[in-house]
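Quarterly update, task 2.4: magnesium ion-bound model.
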Amino acid sequence: MTGNELRKAFLDFFESKGHLILPSASLVPKDDPTLLWINAGMAPLKPYFDGRAVPPKRRISTAQKCIRTNDIENVGRTARHHTFFEMLGNFSFGDYFKEDAIKWAWEFVTEVLEMPEERLWVTIHPEDEEAFKIWHEQVGLSAEKILRDEENFWEIGTGTGPCGPCTEIHYDRGPEFGCGKPDCGVLCDCDRYLEVWNLVFTQYNQTEDGKYLPLPQKNIDTGMGLERVASILQGVNSNYETDLVKPVIDKVYEMTGIDYNKDEQVRTAYRVIADHIRAITFAVSDGAMPSNEGRGYVIRRILRRAVRWGRILGITEPFLYKLVPVVVNMMEEGYPELKEREEHVVRIVQTEEERFQETLDQGLHILSQMMAEQKKAGSNEITGEQAFKLYDTYGFPLDLTQDIAQEEGFTVDVDGFKAAMEEQRERARAAREEYGFGDAAAEVYKKIREEKGIPEFSGYSSLEEETE
Ligand code: ATP
Ligand code: MG
Ligand code: MG
Ligand code: MG
């Protein structure tokens, strides 16, 4: 089954169960200052969950574009994590609840996708006897295949609002994918047991004083990773080898001629590049732009990382922009809007890439000097000052420096970096106060914000970790 067919099969299945199919919302959240990116199928539907708006139907199903930056360290290193991925979901707003949600999920994976039952495992919240009973008595799973995990509880980052236990479906890809640890099992964080589907039962409202009150209207919110399921159905080793990503890797191979499986580092390079250009293409197509803060900085960061991984494959010319049409062709069946904005995306990516290429080599050179110096002094840590210099002078985002450092067995003093950054902000602020000059563009933005009543952006670090 191709990725496109799988997406369609999911939506058709839930349509046949009375769901209204809505198109994916933009990756850029609307009216939601708590979120940098849409990071789950439920995110754009939040107003229906908390009662601020009435859904067009009580059963909805979507294939939603998502970006998660909390997984960036994993990207390219695990078989299953992306910054950009698609989440397939079915949602109930005060309509059906646990029983139907579980039964339909099982029906979809075992009958429509024909996954062999013996490969499937589930997890539940330790206190969710109701879920246990449905899995055990109605679906007929043996008790040993239903694991209890404290982690199976979902709540919004703020700790108040709708929340509840969840149940997950995992697929055993076989011992050859395991990490080899003696206790490797369903709950292990390796690539063997793939978490494919998470079913959340939002049945409580957490109050400010920490009480969980039953909600009058119980909701269902599920999320299934399209690329992960595609990897299973297509019998490949990772998400990256599915038809939802592989064409990009093939294109990069055309440019470099280096075997994808040459070694771990080469494979990671191919994967990071393919992942990041998918994210960039979708994000820019949805109206985000590279910049120095917030959402724009996420794009800048991942683009620069991709450029650097290109160096690992020996690519020294701008190349990411040439991958944009590959992403568009691969994905336009599900997302026709990509085609219309293709040229715009190509131009933005090329411009941004060219700018960074100019300072990258110098920065890389300085960084290796820094590491040599530190090593001589008996340390394997890049200082905050050094990381900040790379950031400030050569445009190295912190995680790019960390990425390279890690390969050489170095760490980076993150607190020191933040302190150096703060110090510079202070200096700039003081200079502004003393001399009264400011950033002309920032002044214009400020005026627009005030006119439109848009609150000031509060800095992206506070939002950065909220996606788990
Ligand atoms: P994991 O534990 O693997 O990081 P998660 O528990 O954080 O996943 P959920 O928030 O439950 O993920 O999201 C629902 C589904 O979306 C997951 O079961 C998985 O199939 C998919 N998914 C989540 N994060 C990613 C990602 N970074 N890349 C690809 N698919 C993902
Ligand atoms: Mg998980
Ligand atoms: Mg999960
Ligand atoms: Mg995760």
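Highlight for this quarter: The CA atoms of residues 260 and 266 lie 6 Å apart.
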